[in-house]
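Structure (tokenized):
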């Protein structure tokens, strides 16, 4: 959490001394970032495709505008997917300090935290590292155009370290990556683990979204060597609607939702959701809720926690006072620090399940 605090401070003091020499087109960046194998509709990467021409983009500050974000060279070709809503026109003059107003189901949105996470990606792009990957093939996107509005934002950790996939919430109407995705991923990356933030199809319900998650995990496994991630001990994180996706894969596996026959996650992290479904074979589960949540009452979560514990699943349940729904990383609230606790819970599962003795401290 100290690293996150430092990045927040940097975002509040972001310099404006860099220039933007050019902007890449969407087609060129996506071609560089993702290779398509048309014969089986799988996106397959080579090592060179995980690198792109370095950008020379300055860090953002909370005083910058939506237009500054959308025009930033680090995000060329996919900038719109950073924002919550698909097919919505934004006020280009809106300051990033007001981004919380774009996410009506969320609370305690700290713009400096969101901007710090965006700057994490900008710093990666400035070194020539690809930060966005499309996990659907061009043919799949042509057949179902909504799939073009999906992808994975990559926050690198140590080479070969396990990965986390984070599914933000938004009631399946929008995807709140700025609050429940990028800040989580930045913290996980700072701890040395690899983290991906999922942009799933919004407005198509839970079924389409969980299919997107299964496809994204399959893509990561198929390209693990090129991405430099370890597949043993991966974790799934989700908040609100996104927690339903993570829990569904944890309960029923990827094949139930169109993915490959791959292992279940070593850990599921569920943040304020009323998801009730479970199986007899659940991964260790870390659970977070707000005491005053009127959208996903903690009593709903507590029934699932009780059922999982009754089935022998290890569960760590945290309920925070004076908080409602959508508090994300909880900066400045009673929940601040839960991200560190969740990472430690995941690390415990990695060590228990790791048969090779590899460690990622």
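Design, position by position:
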């Amino acid at each position: 959490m100290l690293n996150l605090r430092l990045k927040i401070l940097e975002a509040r003091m972001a310099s404006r001394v860099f220039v933007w020499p050019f902007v890449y087109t969407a087609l060129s960046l996506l071609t560089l970032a993702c290779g398509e194998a048309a014969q089986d509709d799988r996106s397959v990467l080579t090592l060179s495709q995980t690198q792109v021409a370095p950008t020379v983009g300055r860090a953002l500050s909370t005083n910058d505008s939506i237009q500054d974000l959308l025009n930033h060279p680090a995000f060329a070709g996919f900038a719109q997917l950073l924002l919550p809503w698909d097919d919505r026109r934004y006020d280009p003059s809106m300051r990033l300090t007001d981004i919380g107003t774009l996410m009506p189901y969320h609370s305690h949105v700290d713009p400096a935290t969101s901007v710090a996470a965006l700057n994490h990606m900008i710093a990666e792009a400035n070194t020539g590292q690809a930060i966005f990957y499309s996990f659907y093939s061009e043919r799949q996107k042509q057949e179902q155009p909504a799939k073009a509005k999906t992808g994975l934002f990559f926050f690198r950790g140590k080479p070969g370290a396990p990965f986390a996939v984070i599914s933000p919430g938004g009631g399946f109407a929008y995807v709140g990556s700025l609050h429940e995705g990028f800040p989580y991923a930045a913290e996980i990356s700072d701890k040395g683990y690899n983290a991906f933030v999922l942009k799933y199809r919004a407005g198509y319900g839970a079924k389409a979204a969980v299919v997107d998650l299964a496809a994204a995990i399959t893509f990561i496994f198929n390209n693990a060597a090129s991405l430099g991630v370890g597949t043993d001990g991966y974790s799934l994180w989700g908040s609100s609607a996104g927690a339903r996706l993570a829990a569904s894969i944890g309960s029923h596996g990827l094949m139930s939702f169109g993915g490959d026959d791959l292992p279940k996650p070593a850990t599921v992290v569920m943040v304020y959701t009323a998801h009730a479904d479970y199986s007899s074979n659940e991964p260790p589960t870390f659970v977070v809720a707000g005491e005053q949540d009127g959208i996903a009452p903690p009593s709903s979560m507590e029934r699932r926690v009780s059922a999982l514990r009754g089935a022998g699943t290890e569960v760590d349940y945290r309920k925070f006072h004076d908080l409602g729904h959508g508090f994300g990383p909880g900066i400045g609230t009673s929940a601040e620090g839960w991200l560190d606790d969740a990472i430690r819970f995941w690390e415990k599962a990695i060590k228990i399940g790791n048969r090779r003795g590899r460690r990622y401290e």
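Reviewer-requested clarification: Residues 12-39, 355-361 have pLDDT under 50 and may be disordered. The chain has twelve helices and ten strands.
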